[in-house]
Amino acid sequence: MDRRPHHEGGPAVTAALPILDLFAGPGGWSEGLRALGLRDIGIEIDPSACATRATAGHTTIRADVSAYPTAPLCGKVTGLIGSPPCQTFSAAGLRAGNDDLDLCHQGLDDIARGSDTRATLRTACADPRSLLVVEPLRYALALRPDWIALEEVPAVAPLFAHVAGILHGLGYSVWSGVLNAADYGVPQTRRRAFLLASRTRAAAPPEPTHAKDPGPDTLFGPALAPWVTMAEALGWGATDRPVPTVTAGGGKSGGPEPFPTSARKALMDAQRRGSWVLRHSNRRNATVRRADEPAATLLFAKASNDVSWEKDGSAGPESVRISVQEAAALQTFPAGYPFQGTKTRQFEQIGNAVPPLLATAALRALAPAALEVAA
User: Fold this and answer.
1) Are 35 and 78 a contacting pair, CB within 8 Å?
2) Is the pLDDT of residue 177 over 70?
3) Which whole-number Å values give the CA distances from 193 to 64, 183, 205, in the listed order?
4) CA distance linking residue 31 with residue 358, whole number of Å
5) pLDDT of residue 13
6) Which regions of the chain carry the CATH code 3.40.50.150?
7) Alpha-carbon distance 182 to 227, whole Å?
8) pLDDT greater than 90 at residue 268
């Protein structure tokens, strides 16, 4: 693998790097920053994600985060963002990260003491990718940014608590915990661990804007908005819901392959008979959500063919795979966001990204530390 850095999607790196985004992916954090009038420079190694970022106008250094030198960045970074790859800790993966937790804790302690033992610990891990979770601390200690925002799957919460303790000892105000994306207007009950830290203000979780049961207005203010449903996010009417995009998934090029006319007719007939649900896998115990509810956590990877719309949970010709555009909307990416690569790679990018709306909420909680960068 070519680990040499390449600059894509914007100007070459200059003397100023206001916000650095580690494991930047297709741009979930970047879109969250864009809504606040801010920009980042991402470090990302996946070519498809880099192509997406370039097409979307996000500046990227194509490089391996774990191998990229921090010395040239010292004194040039105001904010640090990081979403290390979650496959080894995710419920959708083999959870090798759970077996590597002790080694990851050791890596954090070693880095805090100024000892880089990553190479040795990596060989001892059940999955070497698990140790990528220590990279944000390595950058934070070297760069000492004004503020930090990290995100990962809930299984990483104990490691974030460990990082929080180290940063607190360096004078940062730190909050770490788990947020539900649905509480911030994302049409998905996606739970993720976050760490928010600042050297200039008290760190705190973002205030929810939505609730499952918002209740009435009170003397203290208006009620929160109800959770956003999939139907609302996709623009489906309550009674006149259009048939989902019908594709067989396409070939290696990612192109659409229309279903047979008979299957399309069955879908249209099914629409007239009732509502749609989203089945999140083909397992017997798969999570199934109605279109008038938020989706469960969107997880794709090799299972993207299994995330399908179904008529009242039925299988057969009344089942159609979710489209890239629908998945992106449920992740709150802007309409028409230019995901690049094969269809499988596009689904992977969506499922691994931070929902931009959730990113905006988390970053706004760091204000004015974050917003002052735009001034």
Assistant:
1) no
2) yes
3) 23, 14, 11
4) 10
5) 42
6) 6-209+354-374
7) 6
8) no
**What whole-number distance in Å separates Cα of residue 257 and Cα of residue 255?**
7
Residue 367: phi, psi to the nearest 5?
A: -65, 145
pLDDT digits (tens, 9 = 90+) for 97-129: 678 999 999 999 999 999 999 999 999 999 999
The answer to whether residues 210 and 222 touch, using CB atoms and an 8 Å cutoff, is no
Question: Between these two residues, 267 and 175, which has the higher pLDDT value?
Answer: 175
- Spatial separation of the C-alpha atoms in residues 362 and 160, rounded to whole Å: 15
Distance CA 97, CA 170 (A): 27
Q: Which residues contact 196 (CB under 8 A, 6 or more apart)?
A: 147, 148, 149, 150, 174, 175, 176, 203, 204, 205, 362, 365, 366
Specify burial of residue 244 (Cβ count, 10 A radius: 0-12, 13-18, 19+).
buried
Residue 92: which residues within 8 A CB-CB, separation 6 or more?
299, 301, 303
Phi, psi at 310, each rounded to 5°: -135, 150
What's the rounded Cα separation, in Å, for the pair 183 and 179? 8
**Which CATH topology does 6-209+354-374 take?**
Rossmann fold (3.40.50)
User: Contacts from 211-220 at CB under 8 Å and sequence distance 24+?
Assistant: 211/183, 212/182
Residue type for position 55: T
Which pLDDT tens digit goes with each residue over 300-343? 865 545 788 887 645 454 678 899 999 999 999 999 999 999 99
**Using CB atoms within 10 A of its CB, is residue 96 exposed (0-12), middle (13-18) or buried (19+)?**
middle
Residue 10 has pLDDT above 60, yes or no: no
Helix, strand or coil, per DSSP, at residue 106: helix
pTM of the model: 0.85
Alpha carbon of 268 to those of 70, 218, 243: distances in Å? 56, 44, 6
Q: Please say whether the beta carbons of 173 and 115 come within 8 A.
A: no
Q: Could you give the CA distance from residue 100 to residue 122 in angstroms, rounded to a whole number? A: 9
Tokens of 185: 């207007």
Map 26-42 to HEC letters.
CCHHHHHHHCCCCCCEE
Render pLDDT for 336-356 as a digit per residue (tens, 0 to 9).
999 999 999 999 999 999 999
